[in-house]
Write a structure and sequence with these properties.
- By secondary structure, the protein is mainly alpha-helical.
- The protein has a single domain, classed as Growth Hormone, Chain: A (Up-down Bundle), CATH 1.20.1250.
- Helix 4 packs parallel to helix 6.
Length: 393
């Protein structure tokens, strides 16, 4: 394995497993986002109710991601990751046969339970296996893989779901062979005789984190609320209402943001050698703000796509930088649990964001709501600068 600082360890089987697992979990949002208008039409529900398809998927992670992390610390990464992948796959495919919106929401909730474990353990594997700039490089590639998936999945969702929105849900079957790969490729669970359990584990894990970690968790909530609420929820409805675009063309525009995320995140290992990760987080929020305000001003779908590129760059700067900082702050003994908290706050942002932006869009319109989101993002960047995050360390 290469040990050069900032280089991606492509020959690592751990990295490959983490990437495959993460790509399976993020199918739950990016594949479905272009389908929201069609789902709403079939079941005869307004936009806010249609957006619950995403909300119920991300909601379980708020509570269960730290639990999955704690179980992975106690019982090992292998059983938790493999089991979570199977739940995600089976429940996702089952949506194909669901006959009502409540049935879809129940299956999506169960699928979200599995995904919360997948995301927590996948990123923990990278924290276990790598250190320093190489950890940032691996986490950056993981974030880039999410974005590559986010670029491809909306296209697949839009094309496969054209006329039949259920068809894309067959893609979740890919989680089954990945679960087998995880079971065969990861080491057996270690002895747990010296592990705390229950409240003692949670108390000690929380106590081991410095105050800086909670600022990072707050930034994660804000960033994901802006991304999932603004780009992945409000923008599809805006494109439908203002420009009458079909699902396939909406998928193309959403993919623009994902492509820029992938490009920026892939070089995070090198960026952190030139600029402190705290500064990259602040710059990321600046991009969120400029991009969302750009969507507010956009007179054409092409202008929306260009603004989406800027939002995506913000995600590419923010996500791996925060993950690298969390990995550095988390003690090895509690790493899966700490990354579980990280996944939990991400799920909180990804759950609150679509609900807030859909509700705002329904009452005030999507353009004013996106403007408010952009102003909020710039305010977050200003706060980061005020706290000194924008200064070199």
């Amino acid at each position: 394995m290469s040990t050069r600082p900032g280089r991606v360890p492509w020959n690592s089987s751990v990295l490959r497993l983490a990437l495959a697992s993460t790509l399976t979990a993020v199918l739950g949002v990016t594949l479905v986002s272009p389908l929201l208008p069609a789902i709403g039409r079939e079941f005869g529900v307004p936009d806010a109710q249609a957006s619950l398809i995403i909300t119920v998927y991300t909601l379980p992670g708020i509570v269960l991601a730290p639990v999955a992390g704690a179980l992975a610390d106690r019982y090992g990464r292998r059983p938790i990751l493999s089991g979570s992948l199977l739940v995600t796959a089976i429940c996702g495919v089952a949506v194909v046969r669901a006959g009502s919106l409540p049935a879809v929401l129940v299956l999506r909730t169960a699928q979200g339970v599995g995904a919360s474990g997948v995301l927590s353990v996948a990123v923990t594997l990278l924290g276990d296996a790598f250190e320093g700039p190489q950890r940032n490089a691996a986490l950056g590639v993981n974030a880039a893989a999410i974005s590559v998936g986010a670029a491809v999945y909306p296209l697949l969702g839009g094309v496969l779901g054209e006329g039949v929105w259920r068809r894309p849900f067959w893609l979740y079957a890919a989680g089954v062979p990945i679960a087998v790969f995880a079971w065969r490729g990861l080491a057996a669970p270690p002895s747990t005789a010296d592990r705390e359990s229950g409240l003692a584990y949670l108390r000690n894990a929380v106590g081991a984190l410095p105050r800086t970690a909670w600022l990072l968790f707050g930034a994660s909530v804000a960033g994901y609320a802006l991304l999932f609420g603004g780009l992945l929820t409000a923008v599809p409805f805006l494109l439908t209402d203002s420009f009458g675009l079909p699902a396939a063309r909406i998928g193309v525009i959403l993919s623009a943001g994902a492509v820029s995320t992938a490009v920026v995140a892939a070089v995070n290992g090198r960026l952190v050698q030139r600029s402190p990760p705290q500064r990259l987080v602040v710059a990321g929020f600046g991009c969120y703000g400029v991009g969302l305000i750009g969507v507010f001003l956009a007179p054409t779908p092409l202008a929306v796509a260009i603004a989406a590129l800027v939002v995506g760059a913000g995600q590419g700067l923010t996500l791996p930088s925060i993950d690298g900082l969390v990995g550095t702050l988390a003690p090895a003994r509690y790493r899966a649990g700490v990354f579980g908290v990280r996944t939990s706050v991400i799920a909180l942002g990804a759950t609150v964001g679509p609900a807030v932006f859909a509700a705002g869009g329904g009452h005030a319109g999507y353009r004013p709501t996106l403007l408010a989101g952009g102003v909020f993002a710039l305010a977050c960047a200003a706060v980061g600068i005020g706290l000194g995050a924008g200064e070199p360390s």
